[in-house]
Amino acid sequence: SEERFDAIVVGAGPSGNAAAYTMAKAGLKVLQLERGEYPGSKNVQGAILYADALEKVIPDFREDAPLERHVIEQRMWMLNESSYVGMHYRSEDFNEEKPNRYTIIRAQFDKWFSRRVREAGATVLCETTVTDLVRDIKGKVIGVRTDRGGGLIHADVVVLAEGVNGLIGNRAGLRPELKPEAVALAVKEMHFLPQEVIEQRFNLKGDEGVVIEVMGTVTDGMTGTAFIYTNKESLSVGIGCMVSDFARNETTPYALLEQFKNHPSVKPLLEGSEVKEYAAHLIPEGGYRHIPEIHGDGWLIVGDAGHFVNAVHREGSNLAMTTGRVAAETVIRLRQLRSDFSKADLALYRKTLDESFVMKDMKKYKDIPNFLHGNAANVFGTYPRLINEAAQRWFRVDGVAKREKERQIIASFRKGRGLRGLIGDAFKLARAWR
Length: 434
Ligand code: FAD
Hints:
Elements: E1 3-10, H1 14-25, E2 30-33, E3 46-50, H2 51-55, E4 67-79, E5 84-90, E6 101-105, H3 106-119, E7 123-125, E8 130-135, E9 141-146, E10 153-160, H4 167-171, E11 183-192, H5 195-202, E12 208-216, E13 224-230, E14 234-242, H6 243-248, H7 253-261, H8 267-270, E15 274-284, E16 295-296, E17 299-301, H9 317-336, H10 343-354, H11 357-364, H12 368-372, H13 376-395, H14 402-417, H15 419-433
Helix pairs in contact: 1-3, 1-9, 9-10, 13-14, 14-15
The site of flavin-adenine dinucleotide has 37 residues, from α1, β3, α4, β11 and β15.
């Protein structure tokens, strides 16, 4: 017998969960399919959760969500081989009643979110891989097939929340294949340490947390960043670079992670830790120009599958949850209007995103990937080196007159990058940042 749902959601990451929850809560008959053993089983990493996006889906999430620490301090480091130049922002204001950013462990968080989805009334099936989208004669998506057999499952609309690989969308020709210059490969480890050790090392009390975002010579001149996030009893430590850069340079993510962990500014933070989990994952970092069509007859694409990641601000899960919620609200609205979920009607999803921070931010940074592509050796190598050398010259007290130090610093930049290079880079960056 054929079953029929108001909506099918493919995937139980943050985007799919936000979509399924919102629709189920509004009384729609929702089926969510997840290929993993349980939601989050494919997501063993720690990460930053941006509260605002989740609050708009589940306002009382703080009551029972598995949160690690709320972030009170952000450190941004620019590394060379022996040092870093950093900017730290720490504020007591982040010790607020409803903190703005938390560290989380995705496996636990996704499981919790999924429980909320089921409580809202959705049917959630794990260990079920969607194998195909099914269309009618006119090409409208009318349901899916899964690896469990059992024939076609019908729905008025299918929400593709299948993450970065997006194989179902690719297979159905809804989105193009990922390009190596549009996707980063990240590796990540969990380093376990006693709670008191983490609190002493990072100057924290209670549930306070620190995140460190790092760029510089640790990526061997490739476009990429590294990070350390404090959880309650562990640190998430990782590094990622564009796949196209890995293909050109003969290094591996593992080698970079080792190099990062052994940096003299990083090593003491990890000292004595026990490494328990290891994960590798892709991140769609190509930006606005790589966003595929996100709606069509009977279907919507949300989250990483739609390339919604703001690499400059390290935001992904919040865009996933926001696109999931907006997709769901679109479906709810159209259902009230007795829509047939045609492409023309579902364009409301795109329009709503265009008017929100999601597309505005994606558009703002649309030229950054191109700026970095081809300029990575300077941005991630030459400049971090020059800036660290300048800092050392400036702070070392050695009988050299200050005016002479200034002269040496300016000379080092001219020698390291050339006057034309400096002006050209500044101009290109300013234009890409606008
Ligand atoms: P996913 O979380 O990838 O979920 C997709 C789900 O769909 C998976 O569970 C998968 O099993 C399932 N699926 C796929 N295909 C099928 C199929 N055919 N049938 C059934 N199920 C299927 N973002 C942040 O906001 N903060 C961070 O700190 C952060 N750190 C990150 C660190 C790393 C190392 C990485 C890799 C990413 C990080 N991100 C971070 C990005 C963030 O993880 C993603 O943006 C977010 O998970 C996207 O959510 P999603 O629901 O779209 O996709």
